[in-house]
Amino acid sequence: MRNTARRIGVTVTGLLRAVAFQRRPLSTLIEAQRTAGDSFPMRTLVGGRMWVVAAPTLADEVLRGPPGLYRAGSANRRILPVLPDDTVLTLDGEAHRARRRVLAPLFRGESLAAMTPIIRDIAAAEIARWPVGAPFVLLPRTRFMTLCIAARLLLGIEGPRPVGELERHLSDALRPYPMLAGIDRLAWLGPASPQAAAGRCRAGFARGLSRVRDASGPRPGDGPPDALDMLGVTARAGPAFDDARVAGELFALLLAGHETTATAIAWALELLAHDPATNDRLAAEAATEERPLLDAVISEVLRLRPPLVDIVRQLAEPVRLADQRLAAGTIVLIPPPLIHRHGHPEPDTFKADRFLAHRPNPRTWLPFGGGDRRCLGASLALLELREIVGHIVQRFEIEPADERPERASLHGTALIPARGARVVLRPR
Q: How many domains does the chain have?
């Protein structure tokens, strides 16, 4: 009886900590590090029990370790079980490397250069619809804007109506219940299980995507190649990409390619709203070709408020890490918010000039992950941040709608402003 009570107590304590992590992820992580050090166990509602490494040296050991040992694809499937198995985010080994080679041209060189004026046009059109002189919530607006950009890059789709339809289908696929599909013990519910719900969500997204593509008509012929072009090359070179596989890859790319960037833009504007002097300096700099302060501000935003709370790897074999023996199958979690506190005075303060004299150290600045699984779209995200934030600060003074800065809240695996980044824009 005593052992049963102890097990129940441990389970309840773990669940309470998991709920606390959902509600206040940053404070929960910081408190855990303060009491347990740079390596400790943690439990989340979906991922279950994990092992957290919060020191740059340990994170570097994992991120630059043998990819066959530290597997990102299987870990991502565990953390985001709504994702299909056959995507660049959820594959491992040579299958992942082959898919990455196919998609990489979308996010570099000529493709990025061709996307720059498109990003500017989309940003200008969307920002022109924003209210001026009254409080409003930024995050839904930045989400739609970055989805417009991702839809154009990945699908060749343009216009508020088809992108609005795409947003609806994406939101339907990301409902909370299917996100519990990583909890294996719920599979006994059969058709009512989150696992079955996740399958229905993926199928529903594929059908919705097909309708959006059909309704959009021919794709623009004068723009850069999109993901459909790239996946078509894959189909000709290897196993056929049927509609379901294409939809799965596009689902993963859309999820990774717009939510985090939208969150980073919202955080940048929320932080600048509480720092009017920096906002004014950015506006003055915007008239020049070089923008070192804007680049420094973006680096600092991504340090202080990295969009993703976790970088995850799953162990293929047992390993000893920080004098701890970890079993095969263990999920190792690297939290950028904790890694980013190392080596910086006043780590919890937004300092616009922190990276003005030097670039971030890639071992202590991980908003896009690291190693051979560094975010495929990092260059695109930085380009969007530079163009969109630069455009907004040049046109508007940004004021906070609320006196208190917003805390971070967990939405899936993204750290979003708890009130959605409420601001007031005033024309310059």
A: 1
